[in-house]
Write a structure and sequence with these properties.
The structure holds two protein chains of two kinds. By secondary structure, chain A is mainly alpha-helical. Chain A is built from seven helices and two strands, in the order ββααααααα. Chain A has a two-stranded antiparallel sheet. Classes of the chains: A mainly alpha, B alpha+beta.
């Protein structure tokens, strides 16, 4: 087959593109392909090929798997709940899971709660004083972010003062 | 107060009155709570579970809950009694068939129920007829405050009220309205509409029967997000935005039916009446379907010799566990179909 560009050399690179369901075939010689930016080194040294292959198999593939497995096995020191067990039963074992498995739980919480990760709303009257304050500060911080986003700087300054006062 | 006594009457939230009750049957708010220092249910040992039951029972019974307050040991109840409570929305199916020590406090002519040791240590619920979510929230908050004075809830500043399932985390609130939307269904607009609510973090379920299918044009609409939005915000969105919109849609569809398809509408309603008044065997599914049409007929003034509370009563009392409790014997499905048809026939022809 002749190269479609130079119409001289033999086409050795065959490209099939599918654009919007339309199939398009291009046949080029090595030289023209290089000019088109499709250059592919025709001969990759064997040692380079092997290193690439080995690298692609060992590190990027096995590491995340090992990491996920380790996260699944991590257990709560209070009740022994693991993420693996949680995935099965969809229920947690104790309040401490939120602390100790928090890192693995947060993405799940975020997904189920429309992207939210921080409580807003009722706080028990007998909740420890500092935790109530913490929530208030957290809420104010979010309000501050909103105010800045809306370029409401007067309100933002007031919120900032309230945060400083609480801290 | 005994279960046999309540099985002959309709729940207060289902009496057919209340704001917008032609479309909004009832409002419900539920709060999920757990006690600090105790494992959640999946990890709770039976003796600790019994401790929680005692602790919460004592705490809840000390609160002023209005009239007719009673405690039911769900673990010790018969299957029939458990099913009866499920049919009356007093407890969940999960609670009925759960494990270990568990119970329910029922009060205010079934307008308040507390499930102890369901998925969480405590699930408080307040029901009201019609659209009364703000009132539900006020009432349940007051009760929650009183209980909280006696027990310490599991709470974190970051995550709020801690629940066994992260889908309830934060406020632990589930706001629901039960809706009757026969005209939207008849005019073929319901799918379109509920597809739209699917994007707004709301879940839609049927009112009667198992599963997600809405039988008899009843739908239950609930919030899904419990974290990062306050209780008042969720209620406000339902009260001022979502539910009024649905009411408008349904009202419009009803007016449309009345003005342009009166014969079709009347035919449906009168056929339903005809079957209900004369059938000798009727399944619960068929009864729900036909009663739904009758309910629409009464609400639109096309049927004038029955009132809405009679129709609601039939919805409730013709459910399987109700039929058996009120007949004081176990009935197989075929026998239930006979008894059901009999009750409906009698009730509709005496008027």
């Amino acid at each position: 087959m002749q190269c479609q560009r130079c119409k001289e050399q033999t086409a050795t690179i065959h490209l099939t593109e599918i654009n919007n369901g339309q199939r398009q075939e291009t046949h080029l010689c090595e030289e023209c392909a290089e000019r088109e930016g499709l250059a592919i080194k025709s001969q990759i040294p064997l040692n380079e090929l092997l290193t690439t292959l080995l690298a692609s198999q060992s590190s990027p593939k096995t590491e995340p798997v090992a990491k996920v497995a380790a996260e699944d096995e991590k257990s709560c020191s209070s009740c022994g709940m693991t993420m693996k067990e949680f995935h099965k039963g969809r229920l947690l074992g104790c309040a401490n899971d939120y602390e100790e498995l928090g890192e693995s739980l947060d993405p799940i919480i975020e997904k189920n709660q429309g992207g939210n990760t921080i409580h807003k709303g009722k706080v028990p009257a007998n909740a420890p004083e500092d935790s109530k304050k913490q929530i208030e500060i957290l809420n104010l911080r979010r309000q501050l972010e909103d105010a800045i986003e809306n370029e409401d700087y007067e309100n933002a300054a007031q919120i900032r003062d309230r945060i400083e006062h609480l801290q | 107060m005994k279960l046999e006594n309540i099985s002959k009457q309709i729940s207060k939230w289902f009496d057919g009155s209340g704001p917008h009750s032609d479309i909004v049957i009832s409002s419900r708010i539920r709060l999920a709570r757990n006690i600090a220092g105790y494992e959640f249910l999946p990890r709770l040992k039976p003796d600790r579970q019994a401790e929680i039951l005692e602790k919460l029972k004592t705490a809840i019974l000390s609160v002023n809950l209005g009239e007719e307050v009673f405690f039911i040991d769900v673990a010790e109840s018969s299957t029939l009694e458990q099913d009866l409570m499920v049919e009356r929305h007093l407890i969940s199916h999960r609670h009925a068939r759960g494990q270990g020590p568990r119970g329910a406090v029922i009060a205010g002519v079934e307008s308040f129920t507390a499930m102890i040791n369901e998925e969480d240590h405590l699930r408080l619920q307040v029901f009201k007829n019609g659209l009364q979510l703000t009132e539900c929230l006020q009432e349940i908050n007051k009760i929650d405050d009183e209980i909280e004075k006696q027990v310490e809830y599991a709470f974190s500043p970051k995550y709020g009220y801690l629940t066994a399932c992260p889908t309830n985390l934060g406020t632990g609130i589930r706001v629901s309205v039960m809706l009757h939307l026969p005209a939207l269904k008849m005019t073929g607009q319901i799918e379109k509409f509920f597809n739209a609510t699917g994007d707004t973090d709301l879940t839609v379920r049927g009112l009667f029967g198992e599963g997600t299918e809405a039988i008899g044009d009843f739908y239950q609409l609930s919030n899904q997000i419990t974290l990062g939005v306050s209780e008042a915000q969720i209620v406000e969105e339902f009260n001022n935005d979502i539910v009024p919109k649905i009411i408008d849609y349904e009202t419009l569809a009803r007016e449309e039916l009345l003005s342009s398809q009166k014969a079709v509408l009347d035919d449906k309603i009168q056929r339903a009446m005809g079957v209900l008044k004369s059938a000798r065997l009727i399944s619960s599914q068929e009864a729900l379907f036909l009663l739904s049409n009758v309910r629409l007929g009464v609400n639109l003034g096309r049927i004038t010799d029955i009132d809405i509370s009679t129709v609601n009563e039939l919805f409730m009392l013709t459910q399987p566990a109700h039929l058996q409790m009120n007949n004081q014997k176990i009935l197989d499905p075929k026998q239930r179909d006979i008894v059901r048809a009999e009750i409906i026939r009698k009730r509709l022809s005496t008027k």
